Amino acid sequence: MKKIFTILTFSLLTCAFAQERIVHQGRMWHPKPMQGDKMEAAMAKKTQKYNVGNENYPMNSFRVITGKDQGAVLRITSRTFADRDKYTLRKSEMDYWQKNVIPHVDMSKDAGTSLWRKMENHSYNGSGNSDRLRYTQVTEYLVGSGNMQEWNQLRSKLVEAHKKTGSKARFNHYYRFSGGETHLIHMSVYFDSWEDYDKLTSVFSTELYDKAHGKGTSKKWLDHQSNIVKRRSTFIREHLPELSSIE
Length: 247
Fold this sequence. Notes:
Elements: H1 2-17, E1 22-29, H2 36-50, E2 60-64, E3 73-80, H3 81-86, H4 91-101, E4 114-118, E5 124-125, E6 135-143, H5 148-165, E7 170-178, E8 184-191, H6 194-197, H7 206-213, H8 217-228, E9 229-239
Antiparallel strand pairs: 1-3, 1-4, 2-3, 2-9, 4-7, 5-7, 6-8, 6-9, 7-8
Helix pairs in contact: 2-4, 5-7
Protein name: NIPSNAP domain-containing protein
């Protein structure tokens, strides 16, 4: 009964604040063999023509540079639900995309659009830098369908550990609520060069966690997470300014 009440409360709060919260709409586009440059060039022209200067339809693009989707371009627009109601795709815009971009896209790999929200309570920035950086390492977690409450508790304790120890780490968490498996979590860690990547502050370490919560607590945390996470993978993406309408 307690779990049911928690789920109902979360659902009601989600509905109540839906008009205010930012929704991140993403779609990944895979180029046909040897056509990645042509696809990106067409996307860049489309972005300059239809997205730059349009406050209701901001666009950021990223090229995936490691993992199974390497070479694909992820396009993300971040708006509130109210903003989404203000912008209707124009026929000329759709025609441009179909004529100039789609011929270079491998639609057999298309998974459609997905919608994400940032998990504010599971995000932390002790780096002193909130600028957009060139690269993002994304760690993807598929959490068991009955384990989200446990996941939330574990991540809250992790953020608490960073706050208590004054960590210099920077990370955000996002969850997908539409467009696929809904217990999918992305953790994003940011860096500006490969040299910086080699020096990134770890999101989790035995030393950090035990210092904050007591000796031996890190092992219990890891064991608990291993029991509720069904799949984990990591990839890196690179921001593409020429395919983006905002910094």
